[in-house]
Amino acid sequence: MTADSSKQRKVSSITLPGLINPHDLALDRQFAMTLARGLEVLRAFTATHPVLSNREIADRTGLPKPTVSRLSYTLGLLGYMSKDADTQKYRLASGVLALGHPLLASMKTRQLAKPLMAHIARQTGCTVNLGLRDRTDIVYVDSVRADGRNEYLPDIGSTYPLLVSSMGHVLIHGLPRVQKVALLNYLKVQDSELFAQYSQSLDEDEKRFAEQGYCLSSGAWDRELYAIAVPLKGAPGEPPLSMNGTLYAHKNAKQKLVSEVLPLLKQTVHEIETSYGLNPG
After folding, report:
1. How many CA atoms lie within 13 A of 233 on its CB side?
2. Which of 9, 235, 237, 279 could be joined to 108 by an S-S link, Cβ 3.0–4.6 Å?
3. Following DSSP, what letter does each residue of 42-87 receive, concatenated?
């Protein structure tokens, strides 16, 4: 199971994958289905599949090919997709990148965290990442690497399934109970094989998170990659985030992460949250 496989989506007139809780779109007069379908077309592209034909987009979204053709044409005219004259295939264009910049530039939490993440990375040799939830994935909004051996340096905007990482587990276990149950039920139905594969580590992290406020993972993407993550409340108006530290091919990775990296992560989170008044006194 790869991050890319989580992008295989089905869109109908009744359901959309972004809606974790049941929602009858057929009765929702405020919902713009054409807009939703257009956004699903954009989401069909991934780092491993950056160029797609209309047929491939249709297969990945579940939309009819004529519908995809109209949406691709429209998105192309608007500058969100570009078409190769030789292959007649599409790729994302600069308009998509321009949409994301205002979000990143205006995230107060990200701006505050950057220098503190760099300090942790220098002091511990970890790669330090910051991410938030996007549907059933975690999307990275920043990353600082100090360990040259660690090839795991996510690009800003890259996504991975919530189920497989300590950062994802933090964002799951940090939800209010009703939302958490709804999300877990959705994840179990959406990909029962992946859920079964990581259910034990998810349960172990639930106990860690409840008792000690962190989640720990190893081997999700590489058997020598270890990670520890903590929750970070977003500034007013911003969503919850998660910050982690990762070590690659380190002899005592788990011990170092818990004894050295975790206290620094928690201290950093406290400083950030205190700076915008979430930890009075």
Report:
1. 14
2. 235
3. HHT--SS---B-HHHHHHHH---HHHHHHHHHHHHHTTSEEE-TTT
- Write the CATH number for 75: 1.10.10.10
Do 112 and 207 reside in the same domain of the chain?
A: yes
Question: What is the pLDDT, as a whole number, of residue 193?
Answer: 93
pTM of the model: 0.84
Beta bridge partners of 82: 91
Range of the domain at 80: 4-98
Among 136-140, 169-173, 181-185, name the most confident range: 169-173
Q: What angle do CA 135, 205, 175 make, to 5 degrees?
A: 40
One domain for residues 165 and 119: yes
Q: What is the pLDDT, as a whole number, of residue 12?
A: 41
- Cβ pair 12, 24 in contact under 8 A: no
